[in-house]
Structure formats: C-alpha cells, structure tokens
C-alpha cells in the first residue's frame, strides 16, 4: 500500500502537483535505505537535493555593473554652453549694430532736414543781399 502511494506521489511530483508535505514524504522515502528497485532512478534526484541543500558557494560573486562615466557629459555640456554664449554674443553685437545704424540714420535724416531749412534761409538772405546791391548800384552815380 505504501509503495502505491509513493508511486502516485512521484507521478504528481513529476507533474508539479504535489504539496510541500507530500514532497517531504517523498524526500524521506528516497533518502531511506529501503527504496523499491523500480524507483531507484529517483533516489539520486532526492539525494542530490539533500546534499545540495548543505552546500555553500564560497567564491565571491562579482556583478558587472554598468557604471556610466558622466565626465564626458559635463565636458559636452561645457562646450555647448560656450558655443551658445559665443553665438548669443555675436547675435547681440549684430542687434546693437542695427540699433546704432538706425539711430545714426535717424540723426542724419534730421540733420539733412535742418540743413535744407538753413539753405532756404540762406537763399532768402542772398536774395535780400542781391537786391540791396542792385539798389546801391542804381543809387550810386556812375563816374
């Protein structure tokens, strides 16, 4: 009767349907000295589990961790910062030049307008002076 139960438990074990209590029964049966001859092939399996349970691994485990080197990233960020500052400075200089050009152009237009007004004033002055000279020439007797 015991042998039939063990055979059913082995079948359940191979199908991964056993409980922990049933697995303990199988381990005690296969580690004992009275194992049925047709089930001796499973004896090595359960004896391996028992012996491997006592084994410990003594070598140190070295995990390969990916360690990112952020030095290149900081160098790249520095280069990008310097380039952006340089480009920004160039654009600011262009803006200042355009602004200065606009101010100079406005001042020259204002100067030109005022000079034209002065030319008109001088024209009337020259007209007055020419008229005075003509009148003086008429009034002066010719010798």
Strand and helix layout:
Blueprint: H1 2-14, H2 20-31, H3 40-54, H4 71-139
Helix pairs in contact: 1-2, 2-3
How does this structure look, described?
With 143 residues, the chain is mainly alpha-helical. The chain folds into two domains: 2-51, no CATH class; 71-143. The protein has four helices and no strands. The protein has helices at 2-14, 20-31, 40-54, 71-139. Helix 1 (2-14) crosses helix 2. The longest helix is centred in the C-terminal third of the chain and has 69 residues, at 71-139. The protein is rod-shaped, with a radius of gyration of 56 Å. The mean pLDDT is 82.
Which features would summarize this protein structure in a list?
single chain, 143 residues, mainly alpha, 2 domains, 4 helices, 0% strand
């Amino acid at each position: 009767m015991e042998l039939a139960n063990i055979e059913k438990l082995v079948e359940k074990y191979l199908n991964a349907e056993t409980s922990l209590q049933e697995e303990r029964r199988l381990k005690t049966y296969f580690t004992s000295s009275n194992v049925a001859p047709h089930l001796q092939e499973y004896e090595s399996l359960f004896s391996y589990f028992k012996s491997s349970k006592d084994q410990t691994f003594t070598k140190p485990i070295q995990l390969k961790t990916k360690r990112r080197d952020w030095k290149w990233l900081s160098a790249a960020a520095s280069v990008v910062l310097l380039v952006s500052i340089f480009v920004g400075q160039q654009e600011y200089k262009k803006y200042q030049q355009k602004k200065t050009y606009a101010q100079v152009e406005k001042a020259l237009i204002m100067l030109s307008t005022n000079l034209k007004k002065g030319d008109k004033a001088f024209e009337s002055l020259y007209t007055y002076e020419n008229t005075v000279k003509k009148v003086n020439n008429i009034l002066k007797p010719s010798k």
